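Today's session is about reading a structure prediction critically. Students often jump straight to the picture, but the first step is always the sequence itself: look for stretches that repeat, for charged clusters, for runs of hydrophobic residues. Only then move on to the predicted structure, which in these notes is written as discrete structure tokens rather than atom positions. Here is the chain we will use throughout the hour.
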Amino acid sequence: MSSDDPTAAAAAAAVSQQEQQPKKKNHNKYRRDKPWDNEDIDHWKIDEWNPESGDGLPGGQLLEESSFATLFPKYREKYLREVWPVVTRALDKHKVGCELNLIEGSMTVMTTRKTSDPYIILKARDLIKLLARSIPVAQALKILNDDVNCDIIKIGGLVRNKDRFVKRRQRLIGPDGATLKALELLTGCYVLVQGNTVSVMGTHKGIKEARRVVLDCMKNIHPVYNIKRLMIMKELAKDPKLANEDWSRFLPTFKKKNVQRRKPHQVQVEAEKVEKASGTDTATDAAAGKKKKKVYTPFPPAQQPSKVDMQLDSGEYFLNERARKAKKLAEKKEMAAVKSKERREARDREFEAPPPSRSKADGKSKKDSAKNDGVDRKESVALLDVEGLKTKFAKVDKRKETGGADASDFVSGGVSSSRTKKQRRA
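Below is the predicted structure for this chain, in token form.
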């Protein structure tokens, strides 16, 4: 008995412990096999609505009429008038009515009694939205297919500065539309940038990627980075081994860097001019972009006087409105009088004669210079005449010996004789 007592106690303790532990639920207890549900079935596939194959509404028709309307800009009116018969024929096939109101500038689609597809009215609503956003009618009519969806991304309010918004929108389009074309090829969507919106048509997955690229571009993230990521993802999707793996190790991560930009050339040139003019070190510091260290003080700066305080100091606060206006008018008149006086003095300064002392000094200097020039000229003429006389006498001696005369003798003689006459008169 003594040997059986410990074993029985241990067994009883184990039973009590099992009873105290909560029992795990068996979730597969009531689960039955579903022969109509297997892995070969594509749950995301959208079957086409076909009334001939038995698709129809419970009552045979819709209980209430549904309608959607949208406005279009003035510049689309001419195009919509031309293509509206094509839109009408396309919607008649789906038993949907449409109306173009040129007076109000609106397009309306509505269901009819013959409409059997309950979702086609939403497709028709998307159609008129795309037509209003400048999408061609041939492309917009593809939205009536079940496998095509659309999204209109509003980008107008994402950037405050207009110039910055235009630059980022142009960055999304790229040179000759190259960036937009690459985005269309990678996402399999049709993308159109028009005004303050971006219209996208395609599959749900492609629209999601396109929306992400567009919004990132408006947040100053270049579309090239997202396009590179999409290209890598497209190549990874081709490998079946990586179907159930995490792709984050293959995708690039781009960090935002705040690079200090160089100052424009004109700013540097102006800073150099200021430095040469002043000759101080402040211009060099400004050109180099250095800031002087301020002396630290634990006390805050003195509070600037408010407008009311200034009026109290000048006594203007206690004046009534009429006296205040009269005072301002008097100050303006006083300032105008001072300025007009300065302008009058500047005009009169132009008609003032130059100071006499300077003119006399200039006249004396001119006379002295003229006298000196005359003396030099006389000396040079005298030297020239002596040489002319020598040559003249030499020619006369030759003429006596030979008994002939030359024309050059008369010319040179005439010049020399005239010079001697002038010398004698002097």
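Discussion point for the tutorial: Strands lie at 67-71, 96-101, 106-111, 149-154, 190-194, 197-202.
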